[in-house]
Amino acid sequence: MSSSDEEELDLNVIPVDSFASDGNMNTWPTGPPYKERDDQRWRAKLATYWLKEMGSLEDGASYTLDKLPEGYCLFEKPNMKNQRQLNPALFGHPSGRFFVSPNNFLEHFLSLVGSTLGTCKCSPCQSMSTAISGQPRPGRKPGRPPRTSEQPTLDSRLPGDEDGPDYWKILVMKLKHQSQVDEEIKQSSNVDWFLTNEDLSDYFMKLVIDPAYVPRRGEIVLWIWSDLDGCLLLNPATGAIEVFGDDNQWHGPPEWRAGVVTQTPTDEVHMVDIVDNEATSQELSNSGFRVETLPDPLGKDKSYSRQYSYVPLRRIKPFNSWQNFLGALQREDVHPSIENAMTVMSSMSLVHKFHAKGQFPSLSISCKGIFIGAELLAVHDTIRLKPQGYKYNQYKVHGTGKVTDVMVIETITLELSNCVDNPDDAQLAQQYTALLTGKVFTTNPDRGIYGGPFAKIDYKPLSSEEATATFRQVGMSDYGPWYPLADGKTCSVSPHHVIGRCYEPLAAELMFGKHTFGYDLSSVMEGRNFSEQVDHRMPVGHTWFWGDSRVETLGLTEINGVECGVSASQRETPEQWQALLKIARGEGNAKLRKIAGIPSSSGRPHGSKNKETPTSNSGFAGVASTSKMVSSAIGGVRLDSSNEDSEMTDDNAALELTDLMRAVKSDSEDEDYQ
């Protein structure tokens, strides 16, 4: 008998929504040999047991639950001794263990009904209690991991919440158990990871060949709000950068703002674009940068994000160099977004964590990039380092105020010291350190006489061929000659020592009219000092704010017109997204589709008296209509309503869902800002 026939019999259907459930979908098996099984018999047995326990069972009456408790699902798998025999297994218990019969599940079920989970005596609950107390779990061989569908640990509980597993805590617990780890980071049940991992990999590969002067997604830039009729020049009469019009007249400073780059051009960017004439609006759709005005990262009003424009490169300048373009202006004459940007100059967030390696209690997580203040720095970038001994608003003797040192980044890592493996502790480690590692070079032939961490040993400069092979930027020999420091060995620095990217010499000349690479040292240090004074998100005694993502660092709630961050509407339905992820991995079944909000297109829904004709809100179009995250990007996916009546198998449902979820990458990936 199918579940859809139940209401045609004389059954008493008992709803289970009246009590809370501890069921966890993350403990469900992920594929063969497990397969979903019809749960009608279990629901009838549990209903009968329940009423009998309460003394309300009537002779001759039939009972059933309308569904199993939320988060529980019945599966089956072949018996190990007899493959033709299929054994039931009810998954959903937080421990990851399963129940083999309705009678076996009854004690836990009654604890759910009576809200007495704290005193439940079922075997899985007892195993969790013994694990918390530190005693060995009964019936489990030493070293055997629990049965879960995620990354295994010795602890019977799976750290996480309704959003999914806490992969970082699981990794630390695994490190403690195995003493060491060396593995690629995969987080298949993490929505952000699933939607962005592939694009992040492609994005950072592209950055290797992009010129250093091209603004990157998520970077803060200075940009001109209105059209630029003329060119930017230094007005000797005012000492300010102003617009010199095509009419050979000065028109004052342009309307500078600070903004976030949210889209980059599809067309190739050329160095001449730094000073080239204004493009047409049609051309800007492919060659322009979408820049959104930066709102107050500490305030509630985020309306500035909706003030955006597609602008050519000539109307954009690196925010690190704000003093070069705004230094002659009074504070009351600059747009509020400028101070909004300065507020986050002393902030950082790591991007695209892809590998973990360590020996307990230390762990090193490799990343492809890091946001430091206004800029995104990536592996293979050449970055400029602060002068030795330089402090805010203070130049020292012996030329230490001049920028002469650069590093070619080889690795970016998050170093965790004294890791905390307690699943109930929110902290992963007692100390966190971001490090950029690579070889350091200088243009100062006397650099070694001052000693220090990068003391020069080899006084022989790089040849032109060696400089070309060392730096990916074109023409770096024009800054030279270059001398290797620390005898050519790799060195590590913290973000505190970094100024920003090193642009190509000709690009720096076109942007700043200077052939040196210390043009923005004062601006960066002034901005960081301002940030330290006003950003109350920094812990007491600290001078940097660490954000889990660029969205958090900048305090954004909307990107490209799409909600983002922890307050985004799509995060209000974590169970739905976990179900979508499972379906995308090929684990489609009726229960998952129901949780995901994807009605089955064959047969009738459970409890329906009359079969209804599917509407335009059925199938994946219905999912799209319930999520701004999806519907905002639905233009990237063809959803033909004329095909919605056709039967959808698990395989093609998973394929279509994968395409649908990938279509929202361009929006959701901005949460991490590739």
From TrEMBL:
Cryptic loci regulator 2 N-terminal domain: residues covered: 63-125
Domain Cryptic loci regulator 2 C-terminal: 367-504
Domain of life: Eukaryota
Name of the featured protein: Cryptic loci regulator 2 N-terminal domain-containing protein
Example GO biological process: silent mating-type cassette heterochromatin formation
A Pfam family matched in the record: Clr2_transil
Region Disordered, residue ranges: 128-161, 595-624
Alphabetized InterPro entries for the sequence: Clr2 (IPR038986), Clr2_N (IPR031915), Tscrpt-silencing_Clr2_C (IPR018839)
Polar residues bias: start-end ranges: 613-624
GO terms for cellular component: mating-type region heterochromatin; rDNA heterochromatin; SHREC complex
Spans traversing the lipid bilayer: none
Organism: Penicillium salamii
